[in-house]
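As the next step, I selected for study a record pairing a protein sequence with its backbone structure tokens, which the following lines show:
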Amino acid sequence: MKPRVLTTLALAALLLAIPTAASAKGASAATIDGGGSGGLPGGPITLRGDGEPGSGTDLANLAELAGLFAVVFEGGQGGVLQSAPTDRLGPRYTITWTFPGGEGKDRKVRQDVYPYAATGPVTSMAAGQPVFDATTRTMGGWFQANDSLRLNLVSLGLPDRKPLAAASDAGKPAAPAPAPAPATSPTAGTSPAAWPKMLALVAGLLLVAGLAALGLRHRPHDGTATAR
């Protein structure tokens, strides 16, 4: 076979393979559930459609915010962590992703998500889950997301809660109440050191007044008696 013919056939095979690989990369559906006893108040939330990165659908946006492609295909890239970034994770939810597999058989990949973690939303995926077929498996790992993931999940139906406080803030004691102001008295403006002098002055004035009154009482009266 001529080299030109071989080149043409190889190029045709490559062009046929590109759409197949691209279409196989995105999820076709996702179901959100969990959050504690009883699960979500309104029941599981299911998204369907085009899960290709950049397609702009709710499914694709959730996949990008949750780090799905990083923990499924990349491993150790773009926000993937070795372990949980905090022990204050809050309630756990589960996203079950559906990937179209070979021979018409869908594959289910599960990812845990903690929207209200103290360090910001984080997700976790177990390694080794089959994606498209038995040979393609998840890389797995923890993924540090930003608050956009929490807001996105709230818009989809999760409870509108604030992130948990960091451990350093939670362990701080409450600020002490301010000390009450000292009671005021009519003589609050008088210096304590002046009290002995004031008492001595008052005592001296009383003594002088008493002596003066006693002297007036015993003083002889002048004058001539009137003859009758």
About this structure: Residues 25-166 form one domain.
